[in-house]
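Postdoc handover notes: sequence design on the structure in folder B. Input tokens:
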């Protein structure tokens, strides 16, 4: 007996519920594999801790806001790699002072609050309550980071967090525009 048959007979799951489980498991495996491959690259590039900072913050934000979604693993992988590479390398290439960083982070909190969530076309449209929760969570995460950035010593991890938030906000805006265009 296969897994689907086992879930049907043992637990009485419907085909729809089994599809949801399959989607969840495949999504988790896909995300973990991408993070491991990209993490391996940054480990070899001696930038793993900076990558880890960006990846953790990006995972927190993406979980509550969504963003760009792609139908194929390779396109998702390449975009994820490019975004994380920008998060890791931009702090060294484009210096930013604390005041500008704090102002832009506040703008990103507003942007995320206004635009979140942008969900995959494979997921149902979120309820109004879930939309409000997503917006509060994303703005709260960014404002919490902004307060940390205000009081912690200015370092590469703080700046990496800023670039992660800024790039996430840009891709969230792009995802919202893309989704509107597809539904129009």
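Designed sequence:
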């Amino acid at each position: 007996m296969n897994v689907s048959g086992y879930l049907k007979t043992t637990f009485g799951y419907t085909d729809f519920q089994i599809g949801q489980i399959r989607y969840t498991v495949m999504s988790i495996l896909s995300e973990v594999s991408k993070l491991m491959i990209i993490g391996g690259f940054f480990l070899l590039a001696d930038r793993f801790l900076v990558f880890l900072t960006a990846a953790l913050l990006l995972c927190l934000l993406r979980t509550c806001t969504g963003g760009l979604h792609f139908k194929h693993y390779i396109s998702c992988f390449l975009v994820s790699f490019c975004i994380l590479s920008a998060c890791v390398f931009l702090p060294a290439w484009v210096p930013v002072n604390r005041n500008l960083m704090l102002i832009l982070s506040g703008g990103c909190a507003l942007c995320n609050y206004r635009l979140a969530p942008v969900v995959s076309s494979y997921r149902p449209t979120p309820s109004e309550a879930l939309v409000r929760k997503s917006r509060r969570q994303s703005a709260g995460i960014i404002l919490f980071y902004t307060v940390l950035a205000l009081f912690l010593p200015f370092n590469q991890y703080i700046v990496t967090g800023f670039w992660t938030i800024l790039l996430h906000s840009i891709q969230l805006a792009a995802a919202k525009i893309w989704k509107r265009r597809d539904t129009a």
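Context for whoever picks this up: Residues 149 and 155 are 9 Å apart (CA to CA). Don't rerun without checking with the PI first.
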